[in-house]
Each structure stands twice: as C-alpha cells, then as structure tokens.
Amino acid sequence: MKSTSFSLLVFLTSLALTTIASAANPDNVKQLINDRACAGCDLSGANLYSYDLDGANLSGANLTEAALQGSDLEYAVLTNARLERSNLALVKFGGADLKGAKLGKANLYGADLSGADLSGADLSNANLEGANLQQAILKGANLQKANLFRAKLTGAIITDVQFDGARMPDGSEYRIGGRRGIPPEQNSSPPLPMR
After folding, report:
1. Under a CB-based contact definition with an 8 Å cutoff, are residues 126 and 146 in contact?
2. pLDDT at 78 > cutoff 70
3. Is the pLDDT of residue 173 over 60?
4. The dihedral of CA 18, 30, 37, 90: what is its sign?
5. Is the N or C terminus of the chain more exposed, i.e. has fewer CB atoms within 10 Å?
6. CA–CA separation, 67 and 46 (whole Å)
7. What is the CA radius of gyration of the chain?
8. Is 190 within 8 Å of 183 (Cβ atoms)?
C-alpha cells in the first residue's frame, strides 16, 4: 500500500511540475523551486502563480511571458533578467535587484516595487497601474509609454528616466516640450498628487 501511495505522489508531483513548467525547461523550474536559484535559466512561459521565491537568484534568467502573479520575489536578484510580456500583477518585488531587467510590455498591475533597484531597466509599454514604486531606484530606466496611473512614486530616485508618452500617476500623458508630469532631469519625488 505504501509503494502505491508513493507512486501516486511521484506521479502527481511530476504532473504538477509539467503543468507549472508549460514552455519552460522543467529541470530549471525544479531547480528554482528547490534551490531558489536559477541564474541564466530558461523559464520562459513558466506558470509560477503565488510562489514564495523570496531572495531567489534569477539574474540573467529568461522569464519572457512567464506567469508569476501574486508571487513573492522580495529581495530577489533579477539583474539583466528578461521578463518581457510577463504577468507580474500583485508580485512583491520589495527590495529586489532588477538592474538592467527587460520588463517591456509586462503586466505589473498593483505590484510592490518599493525599494527595488530598477536602474537601467526597460519598462517601456509596461502596465504599472497602482504599483508601489516608493523609494525605488529608477536611474536611467525606460518608462516610455508605460502606464503609471495611480502608481505611488513618493521617495523614488528618478534620474535620467525616459517618460515619453507615459501615462502619469494623475492620468495625464507625459510629453516632451509641453510636458505634463515628471521632467527627466528631476532627482526627487515627482510633484504630482499621489493617490
């Protein structure tokens, strides 16, 4: 009876990992879950809903089109990671290292990026509606055409950020020249009403 139960458990675990992995390399998914480290791994298309990956090392990992909504990636290392078109809604990225990360067209709706380092990150066309970017470091980040509606930016370090065409926290569109919103050369919190 024990071997039947064990066989069933092994089968169900394998089935779950296959479902989780989707297009991702199953060995890489298993490594991430077991070790919280998978630097440079191919996790594209992985379904990792609501996982606790606090402090995980995913530097240089390919997470393109991955589904991580509701996961905990606080203090995770995601330097130069590829997260384009990923679903990162409600993900906790507090204190995470996202320097140079590629987040173009990612869904970061309501994500907590407080204290995260997004220096040089590409967030073009990303949905950051309602995201918490308080105390985040955005030096040299690309936020062109990003949706920042209702995002919280209090205390964020904003230097050399590209906002062309971005929807700002107050709902206005940032335009060069007849600008409305945060000027790229400003190095402090934006003077916009935060909700």
Report:
1. yes
2. yes
3. yes
4. positive
5. N
6. 6
7. 18
8. no
